[in-house]
Amino acid sequence: MENVVLAHNADEPLKAVLDGLQAAVYAADAKSGEILFANRAFQALHGFDTVGQVLNEQVVPLPERGDYRADPRGISTADVPCELFDGELLQPRTGRWYHIREQAVLWIDGRVVRLGIATDITDRQETAEIARQQEERIARTARLTTLGEMASMLAHEINQPLSAIANYCNGCVKRMQAGANAAELLPAIRKAAEQAERAGKIIARIRAFVKKSEPRRCAIPVAAILEEALALIEIDVRRRGIRLKIDVANNLPAVFADQIMIEQVLLNLVRNGLDAMKDAVGDERVLTVSAKAGGGRFVEISVMDRGCGISDENREKLFQPFFTTKDEGMGMGLAICRSIIEFHDGRLSVESPPAGGTLFTFTLPIEEAACE
Ligand code: ADP
Questions:
Q1: Domain annotation covers residue 58
Q2: Is 307 near ligand 1, meaning CB less than 6 Å away?
Q3: Which end of the chain has fewer CB atoms < 10 Å from its terminal CB, N or C?
């Protein structure tokens, strides 16, 4: 739209072109907001008597609503042409979404006007929303599958505090029957209560992990994400005889992330690492999870195993949906991990360290804003 100058009475061919557009085109005095030109699509939306009126519809950017960085009412002729607005607005009356671009240009009589073009993008928005919801559903299904695979271990984990509680309670009963006083019973009852809390925490963790929720990004300490995710997989790690090394740099800033989604990524990467070390022996049975400051305003989190490694050929396909080399594999883990990290404006990459095994690294932006 650069350097466009529209005449009051746009000549016929130009008017025909503008009226033929599906997009709404308008020009309005930058100071007063008076509409000087409106094509047919704009008039169909706002009435055929809009020329001469003042722009006050919700569907156009408005200075009083703070839609511009710089108030167009203060723009001088020396500053034009310049871009005023490039964004999306909802028309509350019709519920439709518009992409709007507005520029300040010089009108035929020398004053500054806002020249805008508004394109209806409701269908595109709806498709994007459906795709987003589908992605969330797939991610949740994957979390349920992960938990399903871990169910027997989690049951075992919950069973431990439950049997401890039963033991403490039975002990108390016996002591009471033998005439013990309240003070003597107190330590055992306290321990039983602690164990009940432990079981409750495990259940809360599982429930939070599978909960269906809209992605919600917040300022989260990296250590909290690691702690929650690794608590879920710890028994699996122990059972497979793998040593887990956790290396978190001091004073890491909080990241701006959806905690559950990042836990899902970590869980996936750690489980893949464990699978890859199935045949590893001795010192090689170690999995390292580390977090440190990355370049720029990012934190870098990595998961390194000393397992079978990845061939050059497979590395190309790793992030493709349904790529798997496992008999029981679904091949969705890494594809979901990558889309989660990209949703967070981060990057997920893979390397083969010289010492063998595989190193997955992802970045997350550090927190700069409050919760979304
Ligand atoms: P799945 O685990 O269901 O196969 P993923 O998308 O998580 O799905 O992984 C895809 C494939 O990538 C795996 O089947 C495996 O071949 C390879 N892979 C992933 N992580 C590792 C790793 N740490 N070491 C070696 N190969 C890996």
A1: yes
A2: yes
A3: C
Atom of ligand 1 nearest to the CA of 329: 3
Q: Is 318 near ligand 1, meaning CB less than 6 Å away?
A: yes
> How many domains is the chain built from?
3
- What distance in Å separates the CA atoms of residue 43 and residue 40, rounded to the nearest whole number? 5
Closest CA to 346 of 232, 251, 262: 262
167 lines ligand 1 (CB under 6 A): no
> What does pTM read for this prediction?
0.63
CA of 357 to the centre of ligand 1 (A): 12
The pLDDT profile of the chain, 372 residues, written as one tens digit per residue, is 444 445 445 577 888 888 989 999 999 999 999 999 999 999 988 888 889 989 887 678 888 888 888 889 999 999 989 999 999 988 888 888 999 999 999 998 889 999 999 999 998 888 888 888 888 888 888 888 777 777 776 777 788 789 889 999 999 999 999 999 999 999 999 999 999 998 888 888 788 887 766 778 899 999 999 998 898 888 788 889 999 999 999 989 999 998 988 998 999 999 999 999 999 998 899 999 999 999 889 999 999 999 999 999 999 999 988 899 998 888 888 988 998 899 899 999 999 999 999 999 999 999 875 445
The range of the structural domain enclosing residue 60 comes to 5-120
- Same-domain status, 139 and 97: no
What is the C-alpha separation between 57 and 36, in angstroms, rounded? 15
Nearest CA to ligand 1 atom 1: 331
Quote the ligand 1 centre to 355 CA distance (angstroms).
19
Considering the domain architecture, whether residues 266 and 311 belong to the same structural domain is answered as yes
- Residue 279 within a domain: yes
Judgement on whether residues 225 and 294 belong to the same structural domain of the protein: yes
CATH number, position 267: 3.30.565.10
Measured from the CB, is residue 219 less than 6 Å from ligand 1? Answer: no
